[in-house]
Design goal:
The protein is mainly beta and 809 residues long. Helix content is 13%, strand content 37%. The protein is globular. The structure holds beta-D-galactopyranose.
Length: 809
C-alpha cells in the first residue's frame, strides 16, 4: 500500500468510528431527576396549589426530605417515644418548573418513590390524587395539564402526617424518597411495564421469559417493531427477540417472549452478576421508546426438611430485619446511606434483609441486587385490625389491593427479592377473618408473580389457633420468636417450609457493660428473670438482656444453627432504629435491638455473628480496660478459625481457653489492674490473630476516620466520619463524652451528627455532639462545589483538634 492509501485507510477508519459514535443510541425516554429546587413550608397551605401563589417565605430545599428529623425531641409530640418523639404534622412542598417546547407531543409523568403519608398532588391547580400509604411508590400523568416553553408549571404536594400515632416505629414525614419526571412518546412501555422470569436454568442455557406491556396513548393505529435484547455486565448482547406488532388507539398489549441466554452466569450472594434487558420500540425504523430492566439469573428452593438453597447450594438465610430510617438522616432514602448500612452488615456475614414491615425504597432493592443479598419484601404490619390508633388499618379497605399490587409490580424484577411477606404479626391470625384475607392477599400476589413463595410473619405457633396458617395458602411459614418450640415444628407443621422470620430482640447499648455478664435478664421481668435497668438508660452490651418474647443473640442462634429444616432467620434488628425504645421511657427515643447502633458503630455481638457467619478470622476482645482497681471484670472473646485463645494481662498469661460444646464465646474473670490486656488466638500452635486493649488515660485528642477517601460531586454522596477520642498515647478512651464541634469547608455540608446513644436528645442536625462511650459520628454530603472537603473537629475542653481532607471528584 502506498503511503497515501495507508493514510486514506486510517482516515476512513477514524471517520467510521466517528460515525458509529454519532449513531450511538441516545435514550429517547427522558428520565429527569426531579429532586432539586423545591420549596417547603410546615402547616396547611391549600392556597399553594394555585399557579399564581408566590410563597416567597417558603424554605428552599432538595428532596428527598424528612421534616421530622429536623425537629427537637419532646415527650409531648403525638408521635410518642415509640414513634421517635419527633414532630409530625402537615407540610407542603411546591416546585415551579418549565417544560421544553420539544416535549409538546410527549407523555409526561411524575414518579414518587415514597411520601409519608397521605400525599395529595396538584399540577397547575388540577388535583391529581391522594395516596395514603407512606411507603408505596406511585406516579401521576401530567400530560394534559402542562404548559410548554417559557410558561411555568407548578406542582404542589400536601403531606399530612398529623393523625398520630399511626406507626409503632419512627416513620419520618415528607417526600422522603426520590422523585423523577419521565417523558416518553405516545407509544411506550407502560409504568412498571416489564416482568422477567427465568423458568429454566441449566449450566448451558437459561430460558428468560420476558413480558412487556406496551401502551398506545395516541389517536392513531400504531404498527411497530418490538425489539428485546439481553446484555451481559460488559454490555455485550447475549440474546434477542424481535416481533412486529399493531396496536389500536388507547389500547395496551402484553407481549411475552422467550429468550435464551447461553452459558448463563448465575447471580449469587458472592458474585451477584447482573444482566439487563432493553426493550426498544421502532416505528418505521425510528426509535420511539427504550426501557431497561435489570436481570439476575438465579434459582432457589425452600424445602421442608433441608431448608433453603440458592442455585442448588444449601444456604442458611442469615438475615436481619431493617426499618427504613437511616439514623441521623431520618427517613431520607439516600443510596449512599443505605449502601454503608448494607456494607457493614455484609462484613458481619449477613446475607438477607427483611424489609420490616413495609415496602422498601427502590435503592435498597437495587443495592441488594448489586451487593448480593436475599430480600424478604414485606407489605404490611396491619390489615383491618389496628395496632395503633391511626395506622394503615384505617386505609385498609380502600387501598390494600392497589398497594399490594403496586408493590409486586414494582419489585418483581429484582433478583434479590425471593419472598413476598403479606404481613407481620397480623392480628387476624387469631380469628377466622384471617383465613379470608390471607386467601385474598395470596391470590393478588400470585396473579402478578407466582415465582416466589408468599409468607407471613406469625406469632401463634399452635396450628389450630392460627387462622392465617389455616388458610392453607402460605408457601412458607414465618415464625417470630419462641425458638424453644422450633424443634417440634416438623411434627406440628408437617410438610411445611419454615423460616424464623423474626428472632432475638436482644437489647444493648454500645460500649456499656454490667457484671456479672452471665446474669440473663428479660424485659419486662419474666420467668424469674429480672430486668435491673440503669439510671442512664443504657443496657449492657454483654449479650445478656432481651425482651421477654425473645432471647439473647446466642440463645436463639444456638438453636437455629442446628435445625436444618429452618431455612434461616432474620434477627431483630441489624441496626438500631428511631422509635420503639424498649426497655425505657423517654428520654429513650430509639431502639436497643440493633447489632449495630444508630450511628453505624457495631456493638460487640456483631463479632459473635462475624465469627459464626463468615470464614474470615475473627478475634474480638471486650469490654474496655478502664475499671476500678481490684474490681472483678468479665472478659469475653468471640473468635473463630482457631483452637484456643490465650489471655495475657500486662504480659502475664491468664490461661488459654477454647469454646466447649456449643459455646459461642470465651469468658475469663479477672481482677482489674491497669495496663494491657492481650488475647492471642492460635491454630495448631500458630498465631492466627492478636488483640490488645489498653487502660486509657485522660482524653487528649480527636481522631477522625472517614469511611471513604473520595466523594462524588453529585449533591448526594455522603462521607461518614467516625470520631474517636484518644488519650495522649493514642489509646481509645472508652467513657469519653467530650462535646465535639465541627466545621466543614469546601465541597461538603453537614447533614447529620450522632453518637448512637439511645437517650441522646441533642439535634441530629446540629454542628456539634457529645461523644458517647468514646465515639461520635458526623455525616457530610457533597454540596456540588468542585472543592475538596475540609473537616475540623474541636472540643472546648482542651483536646487536640482533628482535621482531615476528603477529595471531591
Ligand atoms: C416484634 C415486632 C417488631 C418489633 C419487635 C420488638 O414482635 O414484630 O416490629 O416490635 O417485636 O421486639
Amino acid at each position: 500500500m502506498t503511503e497515501l492509501l495507508k493514510r486514506f485507510a486510517l482516515l476512513s477508519t477514524v471517520f467510521c468510528l466517528l460515525v458509529a459514535c454519532s449513531f450511538e443510541e441516545k435514550d429517547i425516554r427522558i428520565v429527569e431527576d426531579f429532586n432539586f429546587d423545591w420549596s417547603f413550608k410546615l402547616g396547611n397551605h391549600p392556597e399553594a396549589t394555585k399557579l399564581e401563589f408566590q410563597g416567597s417565605d417558603w424554605r428552599k430545599l432538595s428532596l428527598p426530605h424528612d421534616w421530622s428529623i429536623e425537629g427537637e425531641f419532646s415527650e409531648e409530640h403525638p408521635t410518642k417515644p415509640e414513634g421517635g418523639a419527633l414532630p409530625a404534622g402537615i407540610g407542603w412542598y411546591r416546585k415551579t418548573f418549565t417544560i421544553p417546547e420539544a416535549w409538546v407531543n410527549k407523555l409526561v409523568s411524575i414518579e414518587f418513590d415514597g411520601v409519608y403519608r397521605n400525599s395529595e398532588v396538584w399540577i397547575n391547580g388540577h388535583y391529581l390524587g391522594k395516596r395514603p400509604n407512606g411507603y408505596i411508590s406511585f406516579a401521576y400523568d401530567l400530560t394534559d395539564y402542562l404548559n410548554f416553553g417559557e410558561q411555568t408549571n407548578v406542582i404542589a404536594v400536601k403531606v399530612d402526617n398529623s393523625l398520630q400515632p399511626n406507626s409503632r416505629w419512627y416513620t419520618g414525614s415528607g417526600i422522603y424518597r426520590n422523585v423523577r419526571l419521565v417523558a416518553s412518546e405516545e407509544l411506550h412501555v407502560a409504568h412498571w411495564g416489564t416482568y422477567i422470569t427465568t423458568p429454566k436454568i441449566t449450566e448451558k442455557k437459561a430460558l428468560v421469559n420476558y413480558e412487556v406491556t406496551i401502551q398506545n396513548d395516541s389517536r392513531l393505529i400504531k404498527k411497530f417493531k418490538l425489539e428485546t435484547k439481553v446484555y451481559d455486565a460488559n454490555d455485550r448482547e447475549v440474546g434477542k427477540a424481535t416481533t412486529l406488532e399493531k396496536l389500536y388507539p388507547n389500547k395496551s398489549l402484553v407481549k411475552a417472549s422467550d429468550i435464551e441466554v447461553l452459558n448463563p452466569k448465575l447471580w449469587s450472594l458472592e458474585d451477584p452478576y447482573m444482566y439487563r434487558i432493553v426493550t426498544r420500540i421502532y416505528e418505521d425504523s425510528e426509535l420511539v421508546d427504550n426501557y431497561s430492566t435489570p436481570l439476575g439469573i438465579r434459582y432457589f428452593n425452600f424445602d421442608a426438611e433441608k431448608g433453603f438453597s440458592l442455585n442448588g447450594v444449601p444456604t442458611k438465610i442469615l438475615g436481619v430485619c431493617l426499618h427504613h430510617d437511616n439514623g441521623a438522616l431520618g427517613a431520607v432514602a439516600n443510596k449512599y446511606a443505605i449502601e454503608r448500612k448494607l456494607s457493614i452488615l455484609k462484613d458481619m456475614g449477613v446475607n438477607a434483609i427483611r424489609t420490616a414491615h413495609n415496602p422498601p425504597s427502590f435503592e435498597l432493592l437495587e443495592l441488594c441486587d448489586q451487593m448480593g443479598f436475599i430480600v424478604q419484601d414485606e407489605a404490611f404490619d396491619v390489615w383491618k385490625k389496628k395496632k395503633v390508633k391511626f395506622d394503615y388499618s384505617i386505609d385498609w379497605d380502600k387501598w390494600h389491593k392497589k398497594d399490594l399490587e403496586d408493590l409486586i409490580k414494582r419489585d418483581r424484577n429484582h433478583p434479590s427479592v425471593m419472598m413476598w411477606s403479606i404481613g407481620n404479626e397480623i392480628r387476624e391470625q387469631f380469628d377466622k377473618t384471617g383465613i379470608t384475607i390471607t386467601k385474598e392477599l395470596v391470590d393478588i400476589v400470585k396473579s402478578l408473580d407466582a415465582t416466589r413463595p408468599v409468607t407471613c410473619a406469625l406469632t401463634e405457633n399452635e396450628p389450630d389457633k392460627n387462622f392465617i396458617y389455616q388458610s392453607g395458602v402460605l408457601d412458607l411459614l414465618g415464625f417470630n420468636y419462641k425458638h424453644e418450640a422450633y424443634e417440634d415444628f416438623p411434627v406440628r407443621f408437617k410438610g411445611e417450609k419454615i423460616l424464623a422470620s423474626e428472632s432475638m430482640s436482644a437489647l444493648a447499648t454500645r460500649g456499656h457493660y454490667s457484671m456479672p455478664s452471665d446474669s440473663i435478664q428479660r424485659w419486662p421481668p419474666a420467668h424469674n428473670m429480672p430486668f435491673d435497668g440503669n439510671d442512664d438508660f443504657t443496657v449492657s452490651a454483654f449479650d445478656q438482656v432481651s425482651a421477654y418474647w425473645g432471647s439473647t443473640h446466642e440463645e436463639t442462634w444456638k438453636t437455629i444453627k442446628k435445625l436444618d429444616f429452618i431455612a434461616g432467620l432474620f434477627v431483630w434488628t441489624g441496626f438500631d432504629y428511631l422509635g420503639e425504645p424498649i426497655p425505657y421511657p423517654y428520654p429513650a427515643r430509639s431502639s436497643y435491638f440493633g447489632i449495630v447502633d444508630l450511628a453505624g458503630f457495631p456493638k460487640d455481638v456483631y463479632y459473635m455473628y462475624q465469627s459464626e457467619w463468615t470464614n474470615k478470622p475473627v478475634l474480638h476482645l471486650f469490654p474496655h480496660w478502664n475499671w476500678e482497681e481490684g474490681q472483678e471484670v468479665d472478659i469475653w472473646a468471640y473468635y473463630n478459625n482457631a483452637d484456643e485463645v490465650e489471655l495475657f494481662l500486662n504480659g502475664e498469661s491468664l490461661g488459654a481457653k477454647s469454646k466447649q460444646d456449643d459455646d459461642l464465646h470465651l469468658c475469663w474473670q479477672v481482677n482489674f489492674q491497669p495496663g494491657t490486656l492481650k488475647a492471642v488466638s492460635r491454630k495448631n500452635g500458630e498465631v492466627v490473630l492478636e488483640k490488645e486493649i489498653h487502660t486509657a488515660g485522660e482524653a487528649s485528642k480527636i481522631e477522625l476516620v472517614p469511611n471513604k477517601e473520595q466523594v462524588k460531586r453529585d449533591h448526594y454522596d455522603l462521607v461518614y466520619v467516625t470520631v474517636n477520642i484518644l488519650d495522649s498515647e493514642g489509646h481509645f478512651v472508652p467513657k469519653a463524652d467530650s462535646l465535639i464541634h465541627f466545621e466543614v469547608e469546601g465541597g461538603g455540608k453537614i447533614v447529620g451528627v450522632d453518637n448512637g446513644y439511645q437517650a441522646n436528645l441533642s439535634s441530629f442536625k446540629a454542628k456539634e455532639i457529645k461523644a458517647f462511650n468514646g465515639k461520635c459520628l458526623i455525616i457530610i454530603q457533597s454540596n456540588g462545589k468542585p472543592e475538596n472537603i475540609v473537616l475540623k473537629a474541636t472540643s472546648a475542653n482542651g483536646l487536640q483538634a482533628g482535621e482531615i481532607q476528603i477529595n471531591v471528584d
